[in-house]
Amino acid sequence: MKIDVTGDICPVPVLKTKKALEQLKEGEELEVVGDYKPALENIKRFAESNGYTVVTAEETENGFRIVIKK
């Protein structure tokens, strides 16, 4: 699954990530892309503190991309 949180500022990207992760089955991955770079660390912190695996987390030319495994 992939969600785009471009144009959103915190806490909205984290809330959208949480909602999307709840819809996934164990072992599935969620890709989150956006343009508000501070959200990258907030999403990463949320995922790790809730037992999810952060597969990749990177800043991109236009913002960020993070992949989380449930």
Structural description of this entry:
The protein is of the alpha+beta class. The protein has one domain: Translation Initiation Factor IF3. The protein has helices at residues 12-23, 38-49; strands at residues 2-4, 29-34, 53-60, 63-69. Helix 1 links the parallel strand 1 and strand 2 (29-34). Helix 1 packs across helix 2.
* Rg calculated over all Cα atoms: 11 Å
Counting helices, strands and paired strands, the structural category is alpha+beta
| Average residue-wise pLDDT | 97
One letter per element, helices H and strands E, the order comes to EHEHEE
Uncertain residue ranges: none
How many structural domains in the coordinates? 1
State which percent range the strand residues make up: 25-35%
According to CATH, the fold-level topology is Translation Initiation Factor IF3
Please give the order of strands in the largest beta sheet: 1-2-4-3
The CATH homologous superfamily name equals TusA-like domain
Tertiary shape: globular
Proper CATH architecture: 2-Layer Sandwich
User: How many H/I helical runs?
Assistant: 2
Total DSSP E strands: 4
Domain UPF0033: 3-27
Pfam families: TusA (PF01206)
InterPro entries: TusA-like, TusA-like_sf
Protein name: SirA-like domain-containing protein
